[in-house]
Design a protein that fits this description.
With 509 residues, the chain is α/β, with parallel strands linked by helices. Among the domains are: 155 residues, no CATH class; 103 residues, no CATH class. 50% of the residues lie in helices and 8% in strands. It has 17 helices and 7 strands. A 5-stranded mixed sheet has the order 5-4-3-6-7. Strands 1-2 form a two-stranded antiparallel ribbon. α3 packs across α17 and α10 packs antiparallel against α11. 25% of the residues are buried. About 2% of the residues have low confidence.
Length: 509
């Protein structure tokens, strides 16, 4: 009996240790769940909470992918921990949680069907079962890019009697006697100028498939393709400059200066057809400076309404030829918004609120025809603009000279005629945001490839970027567009070059 009692005590001690160990594990798990829940709530607050608690635009752009990945990771960890025995369960919700509706996969994608049927379709009672329906679920998959080789076999036919040899001629190519097809050239250009992959990264990616393409070779291919696209670029430039309303903007790009052993500043000028134009298009001009001679030379012979900021280089553009200047309300608003973020200026806050009323009207008028949009602006926007102008003049008398709010008000008052041009033309937008959006590929690209190798390289980049960005504006896949254009260009008649422009291009059947 004493031996039995001793065994029971030993068993009880072991159970106590096991219970204590389990309690410690549960406590550790609950603490981990609490920490993960807190981290998850903080991530959601950064993404979806009130604006004062959110990250700013630059932070969101930088961390958006990381936030999404972190949130998915934390949710997976939380689900795994809560699925373990002994974990605390969440309190029951008063309403069923709405699951986000997943967007349907595109219809044009190839479908590979996998059929799953039970091994036995005979019931335990001996009767044969009847198929009454099915459930279909779809999962997205991918096969990485694969290289393949086109073998062109041209038979030789001879007449022994006439001593004549007949053979099909070699099709004209962008690079005669070169290794790359039009598809590979298009892929290289898209990787460089759309996906912003430097040539050394493309070299590494291609090497994973066992294909050796030195970066110098890729650069040579791009150079030849860019030269082949020049006639199309010239035709596209004429098309863009055929618009009555143009947007203009510029952005700096670093360019290699071999003699000095460093880089120097160059500029990309962008010109786009009006934001309300039914046939969109944008053209870029790579220049070594920011002076007025560059837009003057590019816009020579064009007349219409130019939407731009207050850069002094545009002064000559309006003096030399009959053109109408339209300002950018977003630039005016931005100066007040900066003051709000800096010191919560009540005058700046009221200015931003008044400008917001104008933008609400523009959102309603966006889809209207030009005549109806103009009528709405005259009826609703013009009185608000007149009131805003009078208010700015009054507030300017109350603020001290040289202050930040005085400079912001002066900007709007000095450019008031340009800022209100849109009230007299339904085709003119309220701001210049359309062209600023077209500058984003350059901003992303210069972070990836850092600088242009030369002025010629910058001009070649402007040629390709003009065409691929315009193709995207018209809803085309950049690779499909370039692949078809590079295939057809060597034999395409110059008199019909307009057929290959992004707004007119149709893929061959």
């Amino acid at each position: 009996m004493l031996q039995h009692i001793g065994e029971q005590r030993l068993h009880i001690d072991q159970q106590s240790q096991h219970i204590a160990s389990q309690a410690q594990a549960i406590k550790f798990r609950d603490t981990k769940i609490e920490r993960i829940t807190f981290e998850l709530a903080r991530l959601k607050a950064w993404r979806f909470a009130a604006k004062t608690e959110r990250m700013n635009a630059e932070q969101r752009q930088m961390f958006e992918e990381t936030l999404a990945a972190d949130q998915a990771s934390l949710e997976a960890q939380l689900e795994a921990l809560q699925g373990q025995p002994g974990a605390q369960s969440e309190p029951a919700a008063t309403e069923p949680r709405r699951q986000p509706k997943r967007q349907a996969l595109p219809e044009h994608l190839q479908r590979v069907a996998h059929h799953h049927e039970p091994e036995r379709t005979t019931c335990d009672c001996g009767q044969l079962m009847v198929r009454v329906g099915e459930d279909v679920s779809e999962k997205l998959d991918i096969v990485p890019a694969q290289f393949f080789v086109h073998r062109h076999i041209r038979g030789k036919w001879a007449c022994k009697c006439c001593q004549v040899l007949v053979q099909e001629p070699v099709d004209a190519q962008i690079i005669d006697k070169g290794m790359p097809s039009a598809g590979l050239l298009a892929h290289t250009l898209v990787s460089r100028f759309v996906d912003h992959l430097p040539y050394y990264r493309q070299e590494q990616i291609n090497a994973r498939s066992g294909v050796h393409t030195p970066r110098s070779t890729l650069a040579a291919w791009s150079g030849a393709a860019g030269a082949g696209l020049l006639p199309l670029y010239d035709a596209h430039r004429e098309f863009v400059l055929g618009a009555d309303v143009l947007h203009a903007d510029e952005t700096p790009v670093r360019m290699l200066d071999p003699g000095a052993g460093k880089t120097k500043k160059a500029y990309v000028w962008a010109y786009a057809r009006g934001a309300f134009d039914a046939e969109p298009g944008v053209v870029y001009d790579f220049c070594t400076g920011r002076g007025s001679k560059y837009p003057v030379a590019f816009l020579k012979g064009w007349s219409g309404t130019l939407v731009c900021d207050d850069l002094k280089s545009y002064d000559s553009v309006f003096k030399l030829e009959r053109r109408i200047e339209a300002g950018c309300t977003a630039h005016s608003r931005r100066k007040f918004d900066e003051l709000i973020k800096a010191n919560q200026s009540p005058v700046a806050t009221q200015a931003v609120q008044r400008i917001a009323w104008l933008y609400r009207i523009e959102r309603e008028a966006k889809e209207l025809p030009a005549a109806a949009r103009l009528a709405m602006r005259q009826l609703r926007s013009k009185p608000l603009c007149d009131e805003l102008h009078a208010w700015l003049q009054l507030e300017r008398q109350r603020v001290p000279d040289g202050s930040g709010i005085a400079n912001a008000i002066d900007y709007s008052l000095n450019r008031w005629a340009a800022l209100t041009t849109y009230l007299d033309d339904g085709n003119v937008p309220i701001d210049n945001n359309h062209i600023e959006n077209q500058m984003r590929p350059w901003a992303m690209g210069r972070k990836a490839w850092l600088f242009a190798g030369s002025e010629l390289a910058g001009q070649r980049a402007a040629v390709v970027m003009s065409l691929v960005q315009s193709a995207k504006l018209n809803g085309h896949d950049p690779w499909a567009y370039l692949n078809d254009v590079l295939t057809r260009l060597p034999t395409h008649m110059n008199s019909r070059i307009d057929e290959l422009l992004p707004h007119r291009w149709q893929p061959q059947a």
